[in-house]
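Provenance and format

Records in this collection were gathered into a single text stream. Each protein contributes a sequence line and a token line. The two records reproduced below are adjacent in the stream.
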Amino acid sequence: MPDDPSRVGAAVGVAEHGNSAVLVTLAVTGELLDRRRIDLTRGLPTHPYHHEGSWAVGRYVDSPWAKPISLEAAVALVDQVREAARAGAREGLAALEAELAIPIRCIALRDCPPLPPTTREIIADARAATMADSVLYRRALAAAAADRGWEVCWYDRDRVGPLAGRMLPRGNLDAFLQAMGRAAGPPWQARQKLAATAALAALGARSS
């Protein structure tokens, strides 16, 4: 590890859930610098592809929470949520960076699966619609991070643990996360652990 942590800078690991995201920021030394949750949208439907989009094309219309909506309105809603998420991501990342003494160099986000090219095509594809909302929020965070000059590192949830373990002297990721959780206090659950793991792996990629 470098003697000067600011040379490599800090990494932000992200574990998203619906329209919110857990951000865990680590220094290259592995020190926990910040932990927070941000909401990317407020007052809007959180899953416009999977819910409103599906209802617009006749999926799940017998569910008790379904509401009538046209395809045009569903497409417009997706656009509205996307713009709100971008604004929320810009606001959330700016607030995080303003509170840290060490510059943030990168952000680690979960890989995005390939999706059809247009909103209408995604809505029409049942499988794509189940994934598209999460991708929308991840892409909003990626765009906001890129605007701030941060490198965007994409991680595979199934492979990020071994990559993070390489940053540790003994490779014991579980012990590292447990110690961090004890020091940080609650909440320290699966999402916080995943975000910390992703940040550690991103630091390893940058320092190698």
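Adjacent record:
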Amino acid sequence: MTEPLDKIHITVGNITQLSVDAIVNAANESLLGGGGVDNAIHIAAGPKLLEFNKTLGGCPTGLAKISPAFELERQGISHIIHTVGPVWHGDETASLANTHEDVLLASCYHQTLTIAQQHKIKTLAFPAISTGMYHFPKDRAAKIAFGHVLDFLTHHDYPHEVTFCCFNQEDAAVYQEIIDTRMQWMYNRKRICPA
């Protein structure tokens, strides 16, 4: 049986070029396109994505909606899950999960993973939601993302694998440090409390 931690991967690159069943779009509430990852996904998926998303009626912050991948289906991506992350206005000194933005970002991951489970999506790729133009602190966002993904994979059959697709090596290092810390904690726990 595969450990949940082994189902999580990190890569650097363009999320629209990954070989996964579905990608996550860090969208705005209109779902009609924007900047950054949102723009790249709309360009890669083609104009039919915009036409389809007009029928969805937008999406509140913290929630998620699914669409076909249109032009991206040629490379094996079948769906795009659009989620709207929060704009950071919080206090970076507040403990994790104690700001409204933390709760909304956690909801983005939970809602997206729930949709992936409902559609039996095996492989899913996330960008670093809210860490670009929305200015969510990267380390804080990565801890929320990793924690919720790991918990979901521990308790559900789908998705089988999740990839965090980072913009650059520096961002990937943030995720890697969180994973390494978790692995060290698990190793120490097994040494202290062997099965």
